[in-house]
Design goal:
This protein is mainly α and 356 residues long. 72% of the residues lie in helices and 0% in strands. The N and C termini lie far apart (48 Å). The N terminus is likely disordered.
Length: 356
């Protein structure tokens, strides 16, 4: 899988040429990105005005949301993925494993959850990283802190939340997401469930998905960023558009009163319902955040919406299928129960804090 492929070597330029080409190009692209981004609101409205729809109608509002959010989310996604692709070039699966090996529970849970933010978690890396961590002596609970944080508190989720709904929500999601990963991993570790791993896990070492532990030149790191954009955006753009389409329907057609009654602060059952709805959904942070944006705009409670998003990203059915390769059914059930309890607590706490 390309998420684990190191940047390919290329003919080296002189130092000055490399810095000019590999930094000047991205800086020019960033300036162009900013100009296009600022032009999106009037452009989206111009497109709606050219269509045979009644101004101010539900359809007009839905189309305006779709025309504006589609390029906005894709542009934010590309920018965040590029920057984090460069950051990830300073990490490798081997370095991550080395940092966590020998860590005690507690400190290890904090370190693992923090590393999960900037470390890739995909179908290629999930199983090898899990095996590598366990075989290197990383405690099971510390490993779970990493596996919880990596999909739920990833840089895409934080970048899009910051760009779409503001820094207070993004920072709140970061803080409580890390808290869930740390506490859930610690609780699982205290249960001493190593015997519930698949028998072959402890016999296998980390394989081909480890990145080489070497120093990279500036062009290699920039190339890693572009490669990340190609790989990740190329895989998720369809889900992003699908999520925006759902968000547009909610924005244009969902009655505010009905949605507030279902996902509002006063409905005690809204948080567990949101978690139950989120678990079987096949999506990712990039695809679900436009839905989150639309739900918040319609008056849904912040805690309920965040619980929904956390359930989609941390407890989704596809990721349970991936983890089934290395975990027994009993251990997956414990994992789901502990993480779900943390998500429910966050949902109720946010709804309580923002009840006024």
């Amino acid at each position: 899988m390309s998420c684990c492929r190191p940047p390919q070597p290329d003919d080296k330029l002189s130092g000055a040429e490399a810095w000019f080409i590999w930094l000047g190009g991205p800086l020019f692209a960033l300036v162009l990105w900013g100009g296009v981004y600022r032009a999106l609101p009037p452009l989206s409205q111009w497109l709606v005005d050219r269509l045979p729809v009644t101004p101010g109608s539900h359809l007009a509002e839905a189309l305006a949301f779709f025309f504006y959010d589609t390029p906005k989310v894709l542009m934010l996604l590309a920018l965040v993925v590029f920057l984090m692709g460069v950051v990830r070039s300073f990490f490798s699966a081997e370095n991550t494993r080395r940092l966590l090996a020998g860590r005690r529970e507690g400190v290890g849970n904090v370190a693992a959850a923090t590393l999960g933010i900037v470390t890739p978690f995909c179908s290629c890396s999930a199983v090898p990283l899990f095996i590598g961590f366990v075989s290197a002596g990383v405690p099971l609970g510390v490993t779970f802190s990493f596996l919880i944080a990596a999909p739920m508190v990833n840089e895409v989720a934080l970048g899009l939340l910051f760009g779409l709904v503001g820094w207070p929500v993004a920072l709140s999601y970061l803080g409580f997401g890390l808290a869930i990963a740390i506490v859930a991993g610690f609780v699982i570790g205290r249960c001493h469930l190593e015997g519930w791993l698949q028998p072959w896990v402890l016999e296998v070492r980390l394989g081909e998905c480890a990145l080489p532990d070497r120093r990279l030149a500036i062009e290699d790191r920039v190339r890693a960023g572009w490669q990340a954009v190609t790989d990740i955006v190329g895989k998720v753009w369809l889900w992003v558009i699908a999520g925006i389409a759902v968000g547009a329907l909610i924005h244009g057609y969902a009655p505010t009163e009905t949605l507030a009654a279902i996902m509002g602060k006063g409905a005690w059952w809204s948080v567990p319902l949101a978690v139950l709805i989120g678990v079987p959904m096949y999506s990712n942070a990039a695809g679900i955040i436009p839905v989150v944006e639309a739900l918040l705009g319609k008056g849904a409670a912040l805690g309920t919406v965040l619980a929904f998003m956390m359930a989609v990203t941390a407890l989704s059915l596809p990721e349970m299928i991936i983890l089934r390769k290395v975990l027994t059914g009993r251990l997956i059930a414990v994992f789901i129960a502990v993480v779900a309890a943390g998500i429910l607590a966050v949902g109720y706490l946010f709804n309580l804090l923002f009840a006024a």
